[in-house]
Amino acid sequence: MEKINLGTLFPGIGTLFTGGIDVFLARLALIALGLFLIYLGKKKILEPLLMIPMGLGMATINAAVMVLPGGKQGNLFVDPLITDTKDLFDILQIDWLQPIYTFTFSNGLIACCIFMGIGVLLDVGYMLRRPFLSIFLALFAEMGTFLVVPIASAMGMSLQDSASIAMVGGADGPMVLFTSMILSKDLFVPITIVAYLYLGFTYGGYPYLIKLLVPKHIRGIQPPPPKKVNPISSSQKLTFAVIMCVVLCLLFPVAAPLFFSLFLGVAVREADIKPVVDFIQGPLLYGSTFFLGLLLGILCEAHLILNPKILPLLLLGILALLISGIGGLLGGYIVYWVTGGKFNPVIGIAGVSCVPSTAKVAQKAVSQVNPKAIILQDALGANISGVITTAIITGLYVTLIPYFLK
C-alpha cells in the first residue's frame, strides 16, 4: 500500500511547513487575528458588518493555501497581482471572488458605492445652519491628515505612502481606500485595513481623550443658540450639493468619482426619490460594506504581515487619529475663547469625519456631565463638514502629489 502523505492529502496543513518559519508564524498570526476580529464584531466593539466578513476572510485565506498547477502556492479566491489580459480572463473563471475584486474593488467602485450611501445619510442642513463654524472645526480636525505626512516622510516613507497613511486621520475608510489605491498601489491593502481597524479608536479612545483635555466644568457647557437661524429648505440643500459637486470636480478631476458619489447621494435624498434612497442606504450601502470587508480579509495573506512597513503603518495610523482628535478639540477651544467661554470645545472632536460616530461620542461625553446640555446639532454640522473636507484633502493629495513628483 502506498504511503499516505498527509501534506499532500491536506494541502492547507502541508503548505504551512513548506514556506519557512516566518510564513508559518505569519499565517498562524493572521488566522488568530481573523478570529479575534470576528469576536470584536460579535461583541459590537467594532462594526460587525465589516469585521465579521473581514475576520473570517483573513482566517480562511491563510488556512486555504494550496499547491496550484505549476508548483506555485496560492488559493482559489482571488489573484490581485495578475495583469495579463488573457490570464485575467482565465482566472475570472477559476477564482470565485476575482470578478468582484476586478470589477468593483481594484477600480474604486466599491468605495464610491459606500460614499454614495454616506451621502444619502447626510443632512447637510446641519452644516449649512452654521457653515463657518462647522468648516472651522472640521479643518482643525484634519490636523492629523496634514501633520503625519512630514512625520512619515521623516521615517523614510515615500511622499505617496506618507499621504496615504495620513488619510487615516480623517477617519473615513472610503477616502483612505481611494487615496491609497491611486498613490500607494503596493500598500493600499494594509493601509486600508489599518484605517478600518482604527475606526474603533473613535468609539473607544476619543472619550478618554475628551476627559483628558477638557475639564469637567467646561465639558458641561450648553452653548447658546445662534441669534438667527433661517430654516434650510431641501431646495437649498440640493443646490448646495450640485454646486459643490461641479466646483470640486472642476478643481480635482482625479477625485471626481468620490465627489460625484457623495453629492449624488445628497441630491437623491433632498430630491426625495424615496425608492432610490431606500436602495442606496439599504442594499447598496450594506452590500458594498460587506464585500469591502470580505475582500480586505481575503487580501490579507501571510506576506502582508511580513512586510517591514507594517509596523510604521500601525504607529502612524493611530498617531494620525490622535492628532486629528487633539486638533478638533483645539479648534473647539479657540471658539470657546473667542466667544468668552460660551462654546463647548468638545464639539470640535466631531469634526473628525467618522459619521455619525464622533458626533455621538461628543454628545455622550457632554451628557455624562450635564444631561440637559444638547450639542448634537452643532456636532453633526462639524461632522458633516469633516466628510466634505476629507474628500477635498483626498482630491488635493491625489492631484498635487503626482504633479510634484514629475
Automatic annotation (TrEMBL):
The record's subcellular locations are: Cell membrane
Source species, domain of life: Bacteria
- State the Gene Ontology terms under molecular function: lyase activity
Q: What are the entry keywords?
A: Cell membrane, Ion transport, Membrane, Sodium, Sodium transport, Translocase, Transmembrane, Transmembrane helix, Transport
The UniProt entry, under InterPro entries, shows: OadB_MmdB
| Stretch forming the signal peptide | none
Q: How does it sit in the membrane?
A: Multi-pass membrane protein
Q: Name one GO cellular component term.
A: plasma membrane
**Residues passing through the membrane, by range:** 20-41, 48-68, 100-122, 134-157, 187-209, 238-264, 284-306, 313-336, 384-405
What is a biological process (GO) this protein takes part in? sodium ion transport
Name under which the protein is recorded? Oxaloacetate decarboxylase beta chain
